[in-house]
From TrEMBL, chain A:
Pfam families linked: Cullin, Cullin_AB, Cullin_Nedd8
Family per record: Belongs to the cullin family.
Protein name in the entry: Cullin-domain-containing protein
Biased composition (Low complexity): 363-373
Native source species: Lophiostoma macrostomum CBS 122681
From TrEMBL, chain B:
Source domain of life: Eukaryota
Transmembrane portions of the chain: none
Stretches assigned to the BTB domain: 21-85
Pfam family, one: BTB
Protein name as it appears in the record: BTB domain-containing protein
Amino acid sequence: MIAGRGRQRIRPPRRSVAGDDVDFEQTWTKISAAFTEIHTKNASRLSYEELYRLAYRVVLKKKGDELYKRVRQFEHNWLSTEVRSAIQALFSPNLLANTQGLGGTTANERRVAGERFLKGLKQAWTDHQVCMSMLADVLMYMDRVYCQDVRRLSIYTTAMLLFRDDILNSNTSEIDSRVVLALLNTVILDQIQMERDGDVIDKHLIKSCVYMLESLYDDEMESEDQRLYNVSFEHEFLATSSEFYRHESEFLLRDSDAGAYCKHASRRIYEEDERCRSTLAESTMPKIRKVVEDELIKNRIHELVEMESGVRFMIDNDRLDELNLIYDLNARVDDRKTELTRAIQKRIVDMGTDINNAAIAASQATPAAPAPEAGDKAKGPNQEKSLNQQTVAAIKWVEDVLQLKDKFDHIWKDSFQSDHSLQTAVTRSFADFINSPTFPRSSEYISLFIDENMKKGIKGKTEMEVDAVLDKAIILLRYVQDKDLFERYYKKHLCRRLLMNKSVSNEVEKQMISKMKIELGNNFTLKLEAMFKDMTISEELTSGFKKHVEGLGDKDPKRIELGINVLTSMTWPLESMGSGDDDENKRPKCNFPMALDRIKRGFEKYYNEKHSGRQLTWLANMGSADIKAVFPKVAQKDGSFKERRHDLNVSTYGMIILLLFNELPADQYMTFEEIHAQTNIPRNDLMRNLQSLAVAPKTRILIKEPMTKDVKSTDKFYFNEGFNGKFVKIRVGVVSTGNKVESDRERRETEKKNDDSRGFCIEAAVVRIMKQRKELAHQQLVLETLNQLAAQFKPEVTMIKKRIESLIEREYLERIEGARVDSYRYLA
Amino acid sequence: MAERKETAPPPPSLGAAAAGDMVTIEVGPNHQNYQVYKDFLVYYSDYFRKALAGPWKEAEGVVRIEDVEPELFKLFIYWLYTQDVKRLYSEDVDVRECFKLSYGTAASRMMFMKLYVFADRFSVPKLRKAVNNHYVTSGARFTPWYDVVIYAFDNLPSAYKILDFLVDTQCANWSDKDSPEETELKAKLPHDFLVRVMSRSRELLRGGKSKKIIPCEYHEHDSEEEKKACGQEGK
């Protein structure tokens, strides 16, 4: 407990710790003598305790102010006499000459002189720091008590500022008004320039000087951007660098190729980064990088990309490394990589257009050749041939586009770091040339490509390979804008494949459909799937009918077997299955011989039992028949007589024609007109069938008179009893059954049909939109319609306008009178 | 010139310090020898850190401080290893004996003031704070001893708060019943002290301020949070 004012007590020592009044001058003499020792590096003889005690007492006796001033004065004197003269001793003529921009000194001389100066300055600075830190230690009590009380800078800080004022900002000589700091900047810049030119310089030395500039400030606020480094050096550094790189880029663009330029620019950027790290300050890095990027890239990228050895050259020669460099450079200065993107897009469209033009040229090359030949004579086979050539051109087009795609995928992945925006650009460019208005055939070509692969291409390929082929087709399909047109072609080609059993694999067909389903949605494949369904049902029908017939009674050896495909008329593109030459819309009905007619009626009955109310239309032009033919004995080479049997595979029409000759005596003939009258086969089909039966040399089952290549209505036909086939089974081909490129006329027709169905789609979309919105401005309606149909095709605005007009006429819509903008109202 | 601010490293452990160097301190006019672990010295005292780190004579490992009483230095060493000023009263018989420490006696008050001046001079902030706070808390209700007043005003910068504390406790607690010894010392009271007592008295007379001494106001706090916590405690 506290004992209150107890008696036991000791006397305080009479002499206080700090002593009585100190004699300031005497003390200062001691202190300043010690400071001189410190500056001359003789501190080891001094006692810290003694010096500290002296200063402590002075401050305690309220003479801190005086002490502070004296120390400051002491340092000022020291710097402006001893140190300054030491620095001035470093100025050699070479050094000064250089800073005045005079020539006549070699780089090496300048470097040596510069380094000597830097070394001396650095030494002076380091010494100053060491000494001042010792002084500050001794004067610690003054800093803590006096400087804090009256808010003075610490003595150390003050002394550093003195260095700035008395050394760096002092004139280089009596007669030269430039200050040491300016000289320092120039020397450092000169050294850096030497390094850029390939010399080796003392980075460490420069870094020390940079440290000095970084720790000194231009003003008293000591904010980061007021460091001498920023205020004085960095500014000049950036300016001179900018100029240097401007000249360098000019020179390089003139004297080297784009690849070398890119490499050089990358190296320069790296070098400057490295320089900031090792020689200057890291805070300069973003600034100098910007300077280099601006001068070497930003201001030059356009020229660079467009150079003869620029992007185009790199693409054409697969310079992936260089493309990567140029990508990297462009990305540095432009997030969107505008220049590179532009060049890439242009190249894609150019190359794509070349492919398009090649395809057009290939498809037109042959029709031009046979033109001079006389009349109709050569037309048939030649046209045939040209169509084949077109098909080849189509497939080549697809392959070429895929190859181009491969090439750019490769570049994109390896050189452009799978950059997202470039991918978008590449995709857009592919879509551009594939959907180019000057090349309207991409949909058809892609479908043909699939057709070709389905029929032949995938034979003997592994599942993986087949998958790859299908994927390729899908890739291209992605680019196609008019998906509806593609659907039309695909349906047509698929129809032929299915009905004529041309597909290598049903599985693969279905795989393709499911891929398209994923890519284009359910709607797109609905009808295609329905086609497959029809095929399955037809198989069941055929076998069902066969059983049904067997159940009817005794087996008739002469009974005709029927294989049938029942096709839903809305699903199948039946119009495109008729011979293209038919102009009349009504389906031709031909007369079947009795034997056939019976089985036809039999099936109709059977079918109607299963599905009542459905009407079957027979498409004789689509079918084929296997018939057994017996040719009478004729003399063989060895003199013997032998009956010959052949299995003939002919079209349904072919069969009907041949059956006519069954009932005809061998020496009788029928004219074209007679055949036509009896069978009612459309003239064109008839002509083509007769051509393959009577003209084609290997399947000449009939003899035509006169023997010419073309069939005329006055020609006479005989049965060729002397027919001699090499094989038992003979296939009588009929012209134009495969899937080929359409002729221009066909295509126009297809487009017209396509436009018609587009009209319906547009109307449906417009009605859907209006039903929901009730009232809508014209512009809005057009926009929404475009949006709704984007997945299928891109309708022309004029077409939409027409459809809207038509809907108004039919009173689905009406114009809103007096609306500020054109608007419509939905009429329920 | 940004002075480098070092984040405080953790205090040395005795084990680590024991493995390190010892420093010899020769104290007082008779050069009384003390061996102290260098790690402890340089951690708690900026003075010793600088004295021993620089290229001075002291770099040899001997520091000679002639104008400090050996007993006082002993107290410093005691604190250095225990970090607890209150235990100075109780535990070490040797220390207690030599300063006749017990609460409130003139001798112990004087000793603490000397320790404060020591901590200030040799830059031992932690000790300075501990002594100050202990001194204030235990002396708030008493008139200061005049010899302590004389010593403190002679050896501390006049802006120090502990001097205000002396002035304010004088004004708050003084009654004119000074003992003969004290009366004798009155003649030697520092001029500065008397002037400050005068103006403080004037303030109190005007009734502007409360006479009551709130110790927390005279404490040294490292942070606002600490001050707040201390103020709460005082209530």
